[in-house]
Amino acid sequence: MTVQIPGQSSSLDDWLCYLESVHPANIEMGLERVKHVAEQTQLLTTASKIILIGGTNGKGTTARCLESLLLAQGYSVGTYASPHLVRYNERVRINGSQLCDQDHIDAFHMLEQGRGETQLTYFEYGTLGALAIFKRYAVDYILLEVGLGGRFDATNIVTPYACVITTIDLDHKEYLGDTRELVGYDKAGIFRSNTPAIVGDLNIPHTVTDYGAQINADMVLANRDFNHIVNAQGFEWRYQNYNYEFATPAIPMQNVATALTTLAKLQLLPNEQMIRSCLSQLQVEGRFQCLSDSPKVYTDVAHNPESARYLKQKMVQLKAQGFKIHALIAMLADKDKASVIQEVSDVIDVWSCASLSGPRAEQAENLQTLVAQYTQTECFGYDNVEAALDNVLATHKDDTVLIIFGSFLTVADAIKYWQK
Predict the structure, then answer these.
(1) Does the pLDDT at position 118 exceed 50?
(2) CATH 3.40.1190.10 corresponds to the domain 12-281
(3) Cβ proximity of 399 and 322 under 8 Å
(4) Where are the alpha helices (DSSP H) in 188-252?
(5) Cα dihedral sign for 160, 173, 33, 145?
(6) Cα–Cα distance between 159 and 15 in angstroms, integer?
(7) What's the burial of 293, exposed, middle or buried (CB within 10 Å: 0-12/13-18/19+)?
(8) Which tops the pLDDT comparison, 155 or 1?
(9) What 8-state DSSP symbol labels residue 360?
(10) Is CATH 3.90.190.20 what the domain over 289-419 is classified as, yes or no?
């Protein structure tokens, strides 16, 4: 069957449907194809300074922190993130704002004209499309979130000004391996010789530092070169001659410390008052995002053990205020569902499990079976997130907080529900 190629007057939805159809696989490891197209379309020649941001969790919040601190100083910034929650346009920001559909359409059209016979995956189109947009807008700094791993991710075709690894944990085990050492080695593949490499993980696998030393990366490591110390008011950040105290931000303090260290290393750190102002306004969609104060509802993209541990800390704080926790969970089948549920099970008073849609979706009854292995609390099952919310909110009590989590898709469904 011949696939109709969209044009510049086609809709963004038409283009996205096309991009999903032109490659037989969602993921194809390797850089040869995507680098070839980038060279053909001259996307690797840019005056922008690129900061590559890899890690299992925390990439989005670290990027948002870096973006805010750079924008506050008057720099222009392009940010590329994935996946999106509701609209594709969320993936590319210029100076903190999403772009119109036509910017993406023009970028995809240019790539389609320039790729020749080379096939690209959906993510590779998105990465090259973002680079095309950033080049067109000639931003000062590009913040590029690494999608999967590091070594063979499409983002790794660029020449970075600095490299950042936020955290290292088990996820995408079928591609990256089933130990933190294997995952860390893959993520360290974004390092470059004589280039700043900031690692925010608090227990860095030796494979990361071994590889960094082997290629002579300019490594700056958490708990060796910088640290953050949590206190009753917030946290203290220390790096070289810096010793600042800040109130608790809306994003993980560990990621704030990593972002601050990155800018300090690059001699781009704003003054202390400006940092405070930026941190006080930071909020990232889908990261313990408050959807409603009455009833009290939060949503979070936590979908692996490490992110579940962070979410548990937030739940513990709510329990300390006297609230009960009702968890609504929906996950993808290829995630470590058992570990996620186990991490949070002892702080949850009531469970609701919902099915997601799509080929990777996990069904509610399978989640209910896992919940039953770790707790004896009430557990209900629903066909989808919307049905679960209809039922849960109909009987919601003021002394209970509803936490919706488990996947980007789960959060997207929750946000769409609230937008109605």
Answers:
(1) yes
(2) yes
(3) yes
(4) 206-214
(5) negative
(6) 28
(7) exposed
(8) 155
(9) T
(10) yes
> Pick from 25, 34, 85: which is nearest to 60 by CA?
85
Query: From edge to edge, which strands make up the β-sheet containing 289-293?
Result: 289-293, 296-300, 400-405, 324-329, 350-354, 378-382
Q: Length of the chain, please?
A: 420
User: Where are the strands (E) in 25-154, listed by range?
Assistant: 49-54, 77-80, 92-94, 97-98, 141-145
Q: Which token pair is 357?
A: 């849609």
Residue tagged 């991490």 (tokens): 343
Instruction: Give residue limits of the domains in the chain.
Output: 12-281, 289-419
| 3-class SS of residue 83 | coil
Preceding peptide of 83 cis, ω within 30°: yes
* 1 pLDDT tier (thresholds 50, 70, 90): very low
- Asked whether 79 and 97 are in contact (CB, 8 A), the reply is no
| Strands, sheet with 92-94, edge to edge from the N-terminal-most edge strand | 97-98, 92-94, 77-80, 141-145, 49-54, 162-165, 196-199, 218-221
pLDDT digits (tens, 9 = 90+) for 41-83: 999 988 999 999 999 989 999 999 999 999 999 999 999 998 8
Tokens coding 42: 């001259």
* CB-based burial label for 30 (10 Å; 0-12, 13-18, 19+): exposed
